[in-house]
Design goal:
The structure is a single chain. Helix content is 39%, strand content 21%. The chain is of the alpha/beta class. The chain has two domains: 267 residues, Aldehyde Dehydrogenase, Chain A, domain 1; 185 residues, 3-Layer(aba) Sandwich (Aldehyde Dehydrogenase, Chain A, domain 2), CATH 3.40.309.10. A hairpin with a 2-residue loop joins strand 16 and strand 17. Helix 2 runs antiparallel to helix 4 and helix 5 crosses helix 15. The longest helix has 21 residues. The radius of gyration is 24 Å and the shape is globular. The N and C termini lie far apart (80 Å). 49% of the residues are buried. It catalyses: (2S)-3-sulfolactaldehyde + NAD(+) + H2O = (2S)-3-sulfolactate + NADH + 2 H(+). Keywords: Oxidoreductase. Belongs to the aldehyde dehydrogenase family. GO terms for molecular function: lactaldehyde dehydrogenase (NAD+) activity.
């Protein structure tokens, strides 16, 4: 049966508009065009910014009660349409239908947490009388909205990563322009519809679809934009920061996360967690396990078990309930992964399993004997490839884990508290997950990395801190208390 081609509009300062130029949205599984969205012009971006400045004033005047109500109603609207959201994620992106359902549930949770955190934007009193001569001064600080925010989001979590920017922005009383990935824009547009249905006043939100090469510079460099929240690759983040000017930046720039498996670990649990963490969403996950350092005493059994678990993964139709891994986001990405693996094999790596490509599908792959200084070990693969390496002890595992430019999250499997705390203290990253893989996150926790993995922290309450400014208030009284 022929699919009806969807013509989606973008949200421009609260109004749904269609442009003259359109972008095709393809299903990466078979290349079928499933929808078309507008390719925004620079003039439309400038209009969104102009209206967004006014929207920031409108948003700042919304009471906490009003912000909470909008967020709760938006979450309820998504909850009622879970199937639509899940099917959209699974069709336009790489996730299987089961992975997509989990993302929808997380999105609902993110928006509901945002509603709760709106009531917790607190300040503190300041003891101004701590210095001589100020005995008649009292005061406090409180947090105020930062203003107009631009959020640029990637394809791999096309709904929840947008929610992680939109929910806190609304909770904090800001206006926001969202630029979703041009390959997965429909989920973001559906999320915008949830907020319009929830009664969000016009001008507070724009969701602009288009090519970053055409509209990106205007979005990030405009002086009326007070903050940029970006999730994506390091190279893109570096370009954005060089063009942004004096404004607040929050960036999550990916990683090549390590996991450590010590000889006292529960090996079966480690295998299960690491296989899941490496191949969730076809490995297109900033938290995905890329490197595993296994203590020599248990290396052989771990290698055998993880290879067997990887071979058993069901790869195929994303909408099938049996499928555990779908395609990469484009065939070009699959070809990139293929070239990386072939280069590693030419340089002496061994292929334990996988290593084949068909269109946008790349089989889940496990490599051994990889040079730790090679490109595939040092850079973010962002695909279904897992690297195993034998180590002598925890000291060596930590040293090798840190020997990269990234530091988002890491995992360690051990039953020894001393070893766990040593890893917590010495691993250079934003989060250490004990007895689970690096691929663990709840939407309320602070999330972000060190080194090239980013600037600042997400997680709803922590995003709100980033999206507000402190203002000090001091009263000079006529007489002392």
């Amino acid at each position: 049966m022929e699919r009806t081609l969807l013509q989606k509009r973008m949200l421009l300062a609260g109004e749904w508009v269609i442009g003259t130029n359109l972008i095709d949205v393809e299903n990466p599984q078979d290349g079928e065009i499933i929808a078309q969205v507008p390719a925004a012009t620079k003039e439309e971006v400038l209009f969104a910014i102009q209206e967004g400045v006014q929207g920031a004033e409108i948003a700042s005047r919304l009471s906490t009660f009003e912000r909470m109500g909008i967020l709760k109603r938006a979450a309820d609207w998504i909850d009622e349409k879970q199937s639509l959201f899940a099917e959209t994620i699974a069709t336009e992106g790489s996730k299987t239908i089961r992975e997509a359902r989990k993302e929808v549930m997380r999105c609902i949770e993110t928006i509901r947490i945002s509603a709760e955190e709106a009531r917790r934007i607190h300040g503190e009193t300041i003891p101004f009388d701590q210095t001589a001569g100020n005995e008649n001064r009292v005061g406090y600080y409180q947090r105020f909205p930062i203003g107009l925010i631009v959020a640029i989001t990637p394809f791999n979590d096309p709904l929840n990563l947008v929610a992680h920017k939109l929910g806190p922005a609304i909770a904090a009383g800001n206006s926001i322009i969202i630029k979703p990935s041009s390959v997965t824009p429909i989920s973001a547009l559906l999320l915008a519809e949830a907020f319009t249905q929830a009664g969000l006043p016009k001008k507070i939100l724009s969701v602009i679809t288009g090519h970053s090469s055409e509209i990106g510079d205007v979005l990030v460099s405009h002086p009326d934009v007070r903050m940029i929240s970006f999730t994506g690759g390091y190279e893109a983040g570096k370009i954005i920061s060089s063009k942004a000017g004096i404004k607040k930046l929050s960036m999550e720039l990916g990683s090549n996360s390590p996991c450590i498996v010590l000889k006292d670990a529960d090996i079966l649990e480690a295998v299960k967690a690491i296989a899941s963490g490496a191949f969730w969403a076809a490995g297109q996950n900033c938290l995905g396990v890329q490197r595993v350092y296994i203590e020599k005493e248990v290396y052989k059994i771990f290698e055998e078990l993880v290879a067997e678990a990887t071979k058993q993964l069901s790869v195929g139709d994303k909408l099938s309930e049996e499928t555990e891994m779908g395609p990469l986001i484009t065939e070009r990405e699959a070809i990139r992964i293929e070239k990386l693996v072939q280069e590693a094999l030419r340089n002496g790596a061994s292929l334990l399993c996988g290593g084949t490509r068909k269109g946008a599908f790349y089989s889940p792959t496990v490599l051994t004997n990889v040079d730790s200084n090679s490109k595939i070990a040092q850079e973010e693969i962002f695909g279904p490839v897992l690297i195993l390496e034998k180590v002598n002890d925890l000291e060596e595992a930590i040293q090798k884990s840190n020997n990269v430019s990234y530091g988002l999250q890491a995992g360690i499997f051990t039953q020894n508290l001393d070893n766990a705390f040593k890893a917590i203290r010495e691993l250079e990253c934003g989060g250490v997950i004990v007895n689970d893989s690096s691929d663990f996150r709840i939407d309320a926790m602070p999330f972000g990395g060190v080194k090239q993995s980013g600037i600042g922290r997400e997680g709803v309450a922590f995003s709100i801190q980033e999206m507000t400014e402190q203002k000090v208030v001091c009263f000079k009284l006529n007489s002392n208390f």
